[in-house]
Every structure is written in C-alpha cells, then in structure tokens.
C-alpha cells in the first residue's frame, strides 16, 4: 500500500523500491515534499501572472473597444452585402447568378460575424461583473449602511427632543389650571374694584339726582346692586370663555404634535 503514495506523487513508478522501513519512510517524505514544492511553485507563478484590479479593468476596456470596432465593421459588411445583392438583382438588366450567390455567401458570413461579435460582447460583460467589482459593491453597501445608521441616530435624537418637549408641554398644561384660577381671581378682584368705583361714582351722582329730583334712595340702591351683580357675573363669564378658548387651542396644538410623534 505504501507504493500508492509514490505512484500518485509522481516520484517513481514502483520499478525500483526500497526494502527497509527507513528507506520507505524517506521515499514517502520525499514524495510529500516534492508535491508541496510543486504546489508552492504553481501558486507563486499563478499569483505573479494574475492581473491586478486596475489591469483587469484596462483589459476589459480595451477588449470592449475592440469588440465595438468589430461590431461596426460587421454591421457595415452586412449593409454592404445587402446593397450589392439588391444592386445585382434589381438594378441590372441581366442578372448574374454566380455573382449574386457570391454576395449572398458573403452576406451570410457577415451576419455570422455580427452574431459572434455580439456573443463575445455578452461574454465580456459577464466576465466584467466578477470579483473585480465586488470591492466596489462592498464599499457602496458600506456607505449606504453608514448613511442609514446616521439617519437612524438623527431620528432617535429628534424623537428624544420631541419627547422632552412633550414632557415640558405636559408640565405647562399641569400648571395651567393654577394659573387660570389665579388669573380669574385677579380679574374678579379688578372687576370688584371697578364695580366699587362705579358704585361710588353712581352714588355721588344719585345723591345729586335725589337732591334735585327727590327720588327715593332705596330704589337707587337696589338698582346699583343689580348692576354690580350683572357686571361681575358678565365679566366672570367672559373671562372663563376666553380661558376655555385658550385651553382648546393648546389642546389642538398638543394633539397635532402627538400625531406627528406617532
């Protein structure tokens, strides 16, 4: 069985073989070393002969240029032979069958050459889209992924800022009832002061009118109390309506922000 290694490693054909175990071991080790050296030599030579990425791109570009020229020449030959066939069949008084067959043969050869050039172009395009473009594709994918990650980070930052603004808005809405109550109290106090001033002025005028026209004071007092009550209630109602409108407006703004957040 040990001769299999010698035969397959192309060291010998088994015609001369060692008899001792030491000789057999040396023969096997020599075969393995020879195979390894051969593999290393083939790998190094193939690596040296392999084209670089730039050289592959240049080679593909030159081949594409040559195929384009060949395609133009083949198309021109097809058109030329078509015109010659038409000329020797329709534009002459006497048709020469030999010449017509010659141009037909050349026409078919031109069509075959045109198809071959197109097939070579397809093969070149298939070979161009190989590992040479994988690095470019990888860089493009990496740029797209990095752009998506940055956009995601910016969206997260915007969401955090929006959440902070919503929290601040909620705190302001929580403080709004207290502000409304204080505002209403101040408005009521101001309205009462205004009403008292109006009453004082009304009393002064009523006293003058009573002195002049002798009108009963009790009737005037009841009228002034009624005016005071109506004026204070009307002011309170107007203030409450205004505050409710402000609350409704802030509620709509908050709902719009929540819809954008969702």
TrEMBL record:
Q: Name the major location.
A: membrane
Q: Does the keyword Transmembrane apply?
A: yes
This protein's membrane topology, according to the annotation, is:
Multi-pass membrane protein
Q: Which GO terms describe its molecular function?
A: calmodulin binding; small conductance calcium-activated potassium channel activity
Q: Is Iron-sulfur a UniProt keyword of this protein?
A: no
GO CC terms: membrane
- Annotated ranges, domain Calmodulin-binding: 64-140
- Entry superkingdom: Eukaryota
Which Pfam families does this one have?
Answer: CaMBD, Ion_trans_2
Where is this gene product found? Membrane
Stored InterPro entries: CaM-bd_dom (IPR004178), CaM-bd_dom_sf (IPR036122), K_chnl_Ca-activ_SK (IPR015449), K_chnl_dom (IPR013099)
Could you list this entry's UniProt keywords, alphabetically sorted. Ion channel, Ion transport, Membrane, Transmembrane, Transmembrane helix, Transport
Identify this protein by name: Calmodulin-binding domain-containing protein
Which source organism?
Diabrotica balteata
What lineage is this protein's organism placed in? Answer: Eukaryota, Metazoa, Ecdysozoa, Arthropoda, Hexapoda
